[in-house]
Design goal:
about 130 residues, alpha+beta, four-stranded antiparallel beta sheet, 1 helix
C-alpha cells in the first residue's frame, strides 16, 4: 500500500480568490474614503459661505441701510451680493419715524462646475430718510 504524503498549504485557486477579495475590499474602502473627503470639503465650503454671508449681513445691519445693492468678491473663489429693499407690506407713507427694510446677503461659489449659493435675510427697522 502506497501512502501519499498530505501536503498542507493553499492551492493557486484559493490564493487567487483571496487576492481578488482583498482587491475588491480595498476598492470599496478607497471609494468610501474618497466620498467622505468630498463631503467634508463640500461641508467646509458651505460653512465658509454661511459665515461670509453672516458677516455681510452684520455689516449691512450696522450701517445706514438704504435701499440699494452692492457686490464684490472674497478670496477663495467666493463672490457676494447684498440687496437692501423696502420691506414688503410696510407703509412707507406712515407717520412713524422709521421704515422697515429687508437685507439679503448672498454668497456664491463654484463646486464641481456647478454654482452654489447661500442667502441669509434679515428685516431691520431704520430711521426714515429726511426729505431734501
Amino acid at each position: 500500500m502506497i501512502r501519499r504524503a498530505r501536503q498542507s498549504g493553499f492551492t493557486l485557486i484559493e490564493t487567487l480568490v483571496a487576492l481578488a477579495i482583498i482587491g475588491l475590499s480595498f476598492a470599496v474602502l478607497f471609494k468610501i474614503i474618497s466620498d467622505d473627503l468630498d463631503r467634508t470639503r463640500r461641508s467646509g465650503d458651505e460653512a465658509a459661505a454661511a459665515s461670509l454671508a453672516q458677516s455681510l449681513l452684520v455689516q449691512a445691519q450696522s450701517g445706514t441701510s438704504r435701499p440699494g445693492s452692492a457686490s464684490g468678491r472674497f478670496a477663495g473663489g467666493y463672490s457676494w451680493h447684498v440687496d437692501v429693499s423696502p420691506y414688503p407690506g410696510a407703509d412707507q407713507r406712515s407717520a412713524w419715524p422709521v421704515d422697515a427694510v429687508t437685507i439679503a446677503a448672498t454668497v456664491t461659489w463654484r463646486e464641481d462646475g456647478i454654482v452654489q449659493s447661500r442667502t441669509l435675510t434679515a428685516v431691520r427697522v431704520v430711521p426714515k430718510a429726511r426729505p431734501q
